[in-house]
Design brief:
This protein is mostly beta strands. A hairpin with a 4-residue loop joins β7 and β8. It is globular and about 40 Å long.
Length: 124
């Protein structure tokens, strides 16, 4: 059974960077999305990547600061986050729609297998 595990969150100062990892429990490459939920706000889709990395998208709200990549040999999808600010403070999660295709799931209603999340706090 597929499980997703996020790691890499933590406390970072404004202007800093973090790289989040999303590792799958089985050696199948799925189409993956990264999401975040800040206190009092709705879940926001940030980026997505297809199973072979031939389709990628990044939300306009973080474009230019966040990038997504994957290493299928390690069953891992990465979210590189640069120039972080306090508004980026949230719980970050990865999720999949269960497809290994050319889809790019960046809407929360398009995915149904979620990791438990990793917290990111941006503060001085």
């Amino acid at each position: 059974q597929l499980q997703l595990v996020e790691s890499g969150g933590g406390l970072v100062q404004p202007g800093g960077s973090l790289t989040l990892s999303c590792t799958a429990s089985i050696s199948v490459s799925y189409d993956i999305g990264w999401f975040r939920r800040a206190p009092g706000k709705e879940t926001e889709g940030l980026a997505c990547i297809s199973s072979r990395a031939d389709v990628k998208m990044v939300a306009d709200s973080v474009k230019g600061r966040f990038t997504i990549a994957r290493d299928n040999a390690k069953n891992t999808v990465y979210l590189q986050m640069n120039d972080l600010n306090p508004e980026d403070t949230a719980e970050y999660s990865c999720a999949t729609n269960g497809f290994s295709a050319r889809s790019c799931p960046m809407a929360f209603y398009a995915v149904h297998i979620w990791g438990e999340g990793t917290p990111v706090t941006v503060s001085s």
